[in-house]
User: Fold this.
Amino acid sequence: RRPRGRGTGDISAFLAVPAAIDFQHRHGWDRIRRECHALARETRDRIDGLTGLAPVCANEDFGQMVAVALPPCDAERLRAALYEGHGIEVATTVHGGASFLRVGLQGYNDCADAGALVTAMGEELGRVGQPRPGRSGPPEAMSPGGGPNGDQQP
Assistant:
């Protein structure tokens, strides 16, 4: 059962909002968000190229975090292999029987980080084996997506 309260009642997060907004304005966060989106799109397209799967959403349907369809595999084992073997922390999830990688990019990520993920995915996808019972690959019909954006970095 989930708690019904609003947490601890600590208002410091609310008090920090004006400073956070000011920080984003001073550091050109709109540009950083656009660059992170472009890098997320390129990374998604490169991983889709490895798997041969279609994008699960259109480019305008995500910001700096994007779901990437995985072929039939043990998604949890893939997540662990990426972390333990490559030092890459990325979430995996299962929805409707399909497995996904959740790629999130922030202002401190660059093309080298994204490239390391793509390279590690290429190495690990063949090693993670078949899915555990109750897990499967992505559905056949997916939304169309766009092509890679090139080497933009935040």
Observations:
- DSSP finds four helices and three strands in the chain.
- The longest strand covers residues 98-104.
